[in-house]
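dude i think i finally got it to work??
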Amino acid sequence: MEKKTKRRFDWGSFFVTALGTAIGVALTFVVSGILERRNKAQVQRLTAIMVIHDIDNSIDIVKNMKAEEERNGELLRSALKQRDHLEGMPFDSLYSVLSILAASRSDFNFDTSKEKIFNSDLDTWQNLGNMAFLDNAQNFYHYRQGFQDGVNQSTMWERPIPNEEYMQLIMGDDWATEEEYAAAMQPFLREKLHENRVAYYINTSSSRLNYMTQMLDYWTGLNNENKFLMGISDRELEDYVNNINKKGVSLNRSKLLGHWVLNVGDQTNEYDFHSDRGYDFSSDYAPAFVKSMFFSGKLKIRFSYRGKWAFQGDSLVLTPDYSTADMTVDPSALVPEENMQDSLDAWVIRYREQSINNFKEMADKGGKYTVKPLLDSSHDKMEWTEPDGKVRYLKRKEE
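look at this
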């Protein structure tokens, strides 16, 4: 009978295996901890950059407001000095003075999307860790809200000519030429420029400028400190801006062709791009309720023209041919004042004729409209960035 050999347990292999497993588990925890800390640092840095860029962007907005206030203040002070002799003021200046003094229908608002992200996530506060930076960010958002409220609510910022009076003036007389329009504006502005409310608005321009200067100095210093506290370089900010601007794919000829729609307030614009590098433009405009000496109600307008399109680098250049302009004025939603039907009919005819004539005059001056276009992944939405940074969004229209 064969003798069985007794097998010994290999303690050496067991210890090697157990040690390897223990080291593996330990390494897993170590690596996980490193990755977690690295991810936390990345989140911390990205959040800080987001807030810093938001402050920089708000600073740019107020800088533009200040530059506009400086230009407007100079023009308004000049008009106030010669308020009894407005006959010598050019038509463009008269119209600019009227537009500056007229109340706007919409409030001024900052984009608060990044502020909401910053304030909505408790992890943001834990990840940042730098209390000085957190205090700076909270102080900025507090003062930015105060600035916005001041622009919308303070009498110092309130435009002194009610929008209703402004609309009645520009829509309420049967004039057709610049000379006739100027003749209507001059007595209106002469009267307004003698009102205390208008003089107050003009004379407080320096106060508005001082307030914006103080905010700009405070926000700029605060954000320079933020960049120092968080170690954020200009290169990192530039990379962040470039990344957030990469929202779509480049536009080419084949993706441009077709029918696109752009909605802007009460206006619907349509572009039909053709393979021969031509395009058709049409616009339907139905402003809110208006009232004049002839009528009240909604005025419906449609105007159109043709043009040429071309690519220049990453830009789309539209060259309108205003000599092809046409316009229809639909008075069906207007209600004439008593015994004013004939005047309303005459006004509609002259309004259309003068508008077309204005387009014809623009044709002699030429002009181009340049945008930087991007498409979304579906190729059915297009983003246009205008030279002043304003962004518009168009949708492809199904045929």
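The chain has a mean pLDDT of 81.
im so relieved honestly
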